[in-house]
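job 3f2a | input accepted
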Amino acid sequence: MAAERRALLGDKVIEHIHECVAAAPEPPPEVIDRLRRILTRPANRTPQTRPADRAA
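job 3f2a | predicted structure (56 res):
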C-alpha cells in the first residue's frame, strides 16, 4: 500500500505531507478523549454480548 501511495503521490508530495503533520500542534486532551470514544464505539453502539452455549 505504501508503494502504491508513493507511486501515486510522488516523493515530494509525501515529504510535504510529513512536514505539515510535524508542524501541526498537538490536539488538546478533550479531542483525544472524544476521538477515543468515537473509535472504540462507532455510531455510539455498545457491543452485543452473545449468550453462552448451554450444555445439553
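job 3f2a | Residues 2-43 form one domain.
job 3f2a | closed
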